[in-house]
Each structure stands twice: as structure tokens, then as C-alpha cells.
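User: Can you help me understand a structure? I only have the sequence.
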Amino acid sequence: MSLRTLKSAGLVLALAPLAMLPMGCHKVKPIQLSCNASAPSIYPGESETVTATPSQVDPSKHWDQVYNWSGTGVTGNGTSATVDTGTLAPGDYTVKGEVKEGKKGKEGETGRKKNHANEVATCQAPFTVKPFEPPTISCSADPATVQPGGNSTITCNASSPQNLPLTYSYSASAGSISGTTNTATLSTTGAPAGTITVTGTVADNKGHSVSATTTVDVQAPPPPPPPQVQTLCSIQFNTDKRRPARVDNEAKACLDDVALNAQQKPDATLVVVGNSAPVPATRHHRRHEMTAQDLAAQRAVNTKDYLVTDKGIDPSRIQVRTGNGGQNEVEDYLVPAGANFDSTVQGTTPVDENAVKPQPRNPVAHHHHHHHKAAAAQGAPATQ
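Assistant: Let's start by predicting it. Here is the structure, written out as C-alpha cells:
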């Protein structure tokens, strides 16, 4: 600024020149632009929109604004842009926006005669594409314990955090399993007793898979009941008073059935137990008179002889014993392999077969003196 010095009446004044400003001129603020993403983080395929907001726009100029957008998968239209996130890999991305302001057709241009500046503004909006999370799964078995050959239903509950489609598959350490949904059927046919591990696997359409296991216990089959001694029919010795130990024809039906049982179970043995009612005491004791124990033993030996001679049963499969049943009979028993006769039928005594020999079944000749001799030899009264 220059000064003029005025001298008047000894006074010196210093005056500043008047500021000369152009008429109608004012300083124009530059346009500004901000961008905002609709979601700071998304999964591939989810929607993402970026919106641009200009500021410091001079409404008196009625200028046009033109927007441009850039970035991976970005498509812009005016103040907003969309992002095709379905093709994006997980990572960080930026959408760039630009606005140009000015007269129509000359947006963003500047010149020396323009009374405004910075007709261009830019902005950026960052966002993150997250990787898909793997699905989750848990499995259970119902029932968890089965008998051999039984079935169990396997249920696997699975979900995808992003609701992706899922596929199911199964495997088992034993037995066989079938199913392609969230349930499958385990068959234990042919599987040994013990624990079967079932694995359920679920996979999404992005290559993620996850598995879970459950177990099914196949119980060992219960042991078969121990073999039991089988009581067969009994034969009576009350008819032939002359030979009270003889196996008569009435006994044949019973003993034929006994032989059939033995033939049907070749690993079983037979036990014949002779019994006798008390022998009445006689007034004159005879030297060869048989006691009740003698009669019981003889009946058992005679019964074995019929089974061996007439029915062809191996003699080593037949035991002869005496009991204390108190009846004139022979009781017949079938003893399967593994059964214990003595624990089932108690109070019997083995017969010494070297001392007691079988008697013939032939009828005695009907002579009076022979009849008396035979009766005396058997310890029974002579009868016709």
C-alpha cells in the first residue's frame, strides 16, 4: 500500500487507500464428497451398496453433478453403487466414488475466468468380505444298545451359519449303514458284539465338511440256558410176580420212546434208575432171596439190556443206577451233553455191572416145579 503525505497547517496525515474489491464477487467453497458402505463386512453373495453424499454445494449456481464409481465388481448409478460380492474372494476391498460439478457438459472443468474452484471431489468406502464358516454337526443313536442283528436310527443335526445347502453321508466301523438325509439306519446284522462307531459327515457347497461320531453297543447274546436233564417215561414191574425184574412187553412202548430220544440226540446219555418197593419179610429166609436193593439193580440192568440188545443203543451211553423211589419201577432220563445228572436227580447209586448181569426176557416154562424154583430164585411167591 502507498501513502500520500499531506501537509497542511503544519499537520501531516497518513491515509490508507480504500480497498478496491470487484463488485458481486465472493469466495466459493470447494465441493466435498463422503461415501458410506451399507455393511462393513459381508459374506460372498450378500448385498453391498455404497452411497455418496456431496456437501458444500452452491445451490445458487444450479450446476450439474456427474458421479463416477470404481472398484472390483462395482457398478455405479448416480449417488449409489452396488457391488457384485458373489465373485469376490475373502479379503478387504475399497469402493471409490467421484463427483464432478459444473455447467452441463462442462462438469469438472476449470478456467481463469471461473469464480469457483475444485469442481471435483472423491471419496472411498472400505468393506470386508468374510470367508464362509464351516457347518456344525452333532449325532446320536436310538437305541444306543441293541441285540445282535438289531437296528438303530442315527440322527445328525447339522446347520450352516450362512444357511448354505448341506449334504449328508455316513460310515460305520461294523455292520452296515444307509441314509443320505439327517437320519440313517444302522444294521448290526453280521456285526460282532461290542461297540460300533458311526460317523456322520455334512458338507456345504463351498467345500467345507465336518464330522461327528456316535456309538451303538451290540450286546453279546445271552448265554443259552444250561442243558437240563430230561425226565422220560418210567416202566413198571408189578405184573410178573414170578420174575419181578423182567422187562415185559408192556414196557416196550416206553423204552422204544427212550431209544428214539437217544437216537435223536447222539451226544446225550441215558440213565436208568431202578427202584423197588420194600420186600416183605418171609417166615423162612431163603438163601437166594433178593432184597429190595437187589431187585432195583436187576431191573436197571435188564432195562439197559433191552435198550442195547433190542434197540441198538451203544451200551457206553447208558448208565445204570438204583434209587430210593419206593416203587417197583425203572425211571428213565436223557442227559444232554453238559448237563449234570447228580445235581438234578439226587440220591442214586451206580450199579456194579460186573456183579449184576442181565436176565433173559424169555417167558418161563409153565411147569409147576419150575415155577416154584423161579419164584424162589427171584424172592417172590410162586403164582400161576
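Now, to help you interpret it: Residues 1-25, 112-117, 368-384 have pLDDT under 50 and may be disordered. The CA atoms of residues 165 and 204 lie 6 Å apart. Let me know which part you'd like to focus on.
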